[in-house]
Amino acid sequence: MTIKAYGAQASDKPLQAMTLTRRTPGAHDVQIEIAYCGVCHSDLHQVRSEWAGTLYPCVPGHEIVGRVSAVGTHVSGFKAGDLVGVGCIVDSCGHCEECAAGLENYCDQMVGTYNGPTPDAPGHTLGGYSQRIVVNERYVLRIRHPQAQLAAVAPLLCAGITTYSPLRHWKVGPGHKVGVVGIGGLGHMGIKLAHAMGAHVVALTTSESKRTAALALGADEVVISRDTHDMAAHAGSFNFILNTVAAPHDLDPFFELLKRDGTMALVGAPATPHPSPQVFNLIMKRRSLAGSLIGGIPETQEMLDFCAERGIVADIEMIRIDQINQAYERMLKGDVKYRFVIDSASLAA
Ligand code: NAP
Ligand code: ZN
User: Fold this and answer.
1) 89, 128, 171, 240: which is deepest, by most CB within 10 A?
2) How many angstroms separate the CA atoms of 271 and 35, rounded?
3) Is 308 part of a structural domain of the chain?
4) What distance in angstroms lies between residue 159's CA and the mean position of ligand 2's atoms?
5) Is there a domain that residue 143 lies in?
6) Ligand 1 atom with the shortest distance to the CA of 42
7) From the alpha carbon of 246, which atom of ligand 1 is closest?
């Protein structure tokens, strides 16, 4: 069926209204009426072809929440009316070592919610800046938050899992001093989740204006990362740092904050590389540099349930779809507290 969507026709063009077709649900498919979709910085990187290989038209959006409107004949886990979410993954091979471990995010054939290969027209996947999506039930998540929180749940589908997964992998918990670098969509969820896991959380930000808000999000301390004196006071004291910054920057001042055996995991995905860390900054204290990509489907469900039990949602600013181009400009200036979410009803206008 034909539905309304918003997307870009080229890397130098703004997003605009367009139509697209969704497949009729197959035996294992769930059809979802999208209620809200979060706006991730990855959407902007992809639309503007800052990463290689953007296919046009590009309809971004991988923080999707809504209600099931139809299910295929073999779907057992969902029924019409259920509140559900779709994150960054809509398909994978289903049988490799990674898929068997529930780590579909690391499957070589993982299909992203947008810009991934699909037999459906136009030959690549089109995401959540649209009225409806059809997804194999294996990649559909159940939402247990109250419906009133639905819009603020949307960002959990990417910003939530992308920060939850490394915090779990590196076993963050009580007694750990954890830094979160960059307090944007991902970073603000990183603070909330690390705090909920019992860590001592330090927000590392370039924005003095975020100091009070970062404390309200659950940070125990705030450090202005441009302030060398402030940074020096924390030298060699962190167990783990989660770096969410969307642009290339000098990583060395953050390595100097890590204790012996500390790790900094990068989740920010800038278009051009960071200047390399100085080797001595790693070897002198056996420090590690790591990376992490979203999270698998079982862990995404675990994260959603963890957040539902504790009442954790994102801090959002709701927008209409026709405000999306302005929202991108504001996101580039760091002018969002802390995630834009599209009210998908505005697509009908
Ligand atoms: P965002 O909302 O724009 O937040 C990024 C934050 O980084 C900013 O708020 C800012 O925080 C800080 N920053 C400092 N210098 C910056 C600069 N020159 N340009 C931009 N930001 C700067 O972005 P997001 O949605 O959280 O995404 C962050 C990055 O993670 C993006 O590159 C995105 O593509 C990537 N990502 C990766 C994964 C993954 O699986 N690894 C998943 C989702 C997104 P302060 O004001 O506090 O300094
Ligand atoms: Zn994302």
Assistant:
1) 128
2) 31
3) no
4) 6
5) yes
6) 34
7) 32
Alpha helices in the chain (DSSP H): 41-47, 97-100, 150-153, 159-169, 185-196, 211-217, 228-232, 252-255, 279-283, 297-310, 324-332
Are residues 152 and 22 part of one domain? Answer: yes
Ligand 1 neighbours by CB, cut-off 6 Å? 40-42, 45, 158, 162, 182-187, 205-207, 210, 244-247, 267-270, 292-294, 331, 334
Domain residue limits at 237: 160-291
- Confirm whether 302 is domain-assigned: no
Contacts from 217-226 at CB under 8 Å and sequence distance 24+? 217/183, 217/188, 217/191, 217/192, 217/315, 217/338, 218/191, 218/192, 218/194, 219/180, 219/191, 219/195, 220/195, 223/179, 225/181, 225/253, 225/254
Reported as a single tens digit per residue, the pLDDT across 233-261 is 999 999 999 999 999 999 999 999 999 99
pLDDT tens, 164-211? 999 999 999 999 999 999 999 999 999 999 999 999 999 999 999 999
Which residues make up the environment of ion ligand 2, defined by Cβ < 5 Å? 40, 42, 158
Contacts of 115 (CB under 8 A, 6+ apart): 46, 53, 54, 55, 58, 124, 125
Which ligand is nearest the CA of 37, by number?
Answer: 2
